[in-house]
What we know:
46% helix; 12 helices; Rossmann fold; five-stranded parallel β-sheet; two-stranded antiparallel sheet; single chain; globular; 7 strands; alpha/beta
Amino acid sequence: MKKQFIKFMIIIVFFLVPIKTNAQVIGPVSYVALGDSLAAGQTPNREIDTGYSDLIAQELARNQPLAFFSKDLAFPGFTSADVLKRVQSKEAKPLLQSANVITISAGANDLLRLIRADERSGSLSFQQIPVDYSLNTVRKNMQTMLSELKKIAPKAQVYVMGYYYAYPHARDSQKGGTAEQLDLLNEILAKVAKDAGAQFVPVAPAFGDSADKVPNPGDVHPNVEGYRTMANSFFNVYAKGAMQVMKNEVPIANPLTFEEIMQAQSESTVTEDKSAVLPSSFLKVEYLALKEIKPKI
């Protein structure tokens, strides 16, 4: 009888005590953003400013101790192969080893470079076979990348960011095929993340086919409202919506050109602690390669 009573009380306690179902880190957060120009915060005018990773870091700092935040491993135009190469580089290892939260934006440039978008006519076109090959390449690279991150940062919570529809200004009759390919990209990223024990962050549902978040018909990058939507999509997974970036919390715009970023990097000093050397010389080389990149994420 006594054993039955104990079992009964255990069941009651189980249902009365709230179960923590979010993936929130307990204690100080060390956040590193990996990926393409969305992780870097590229604006629709080919500048770098507040992006989703900056807004995530800001909101984390409002709610938890934030030990450090870096988006220095994120670069405009990076494909999944480029991001994988960066993860495997010896320069990135100390930073990744220190992280307990990592976000990744990778895969869109593998696809978007194959889509021909005519800004004036609103037409979109692509060839299916190269796109299929590219999506399979994304799958393989992401699998390898997540496997590498498990070795480098085994205690880090990894979040794979999804993508929004990048061509809201195209003619409606032209959107179907490209929308299907972007949906496939998101499906691949979600499956690879699940298989690797990482979290997938769906962005498209909250973003929608919204031209007000991608205001430049000749550019696929979102404005700060689009980045705020992406950050809040992250918090829907990380904290089950308990954290959200409000409109009045978005910093005042302070865009920098790539030339200004390079100048700031050249003036930065190297500290004695090599694990804290950011930005470093290898980052400057990558930014020098950005000048010809226009439509890519």
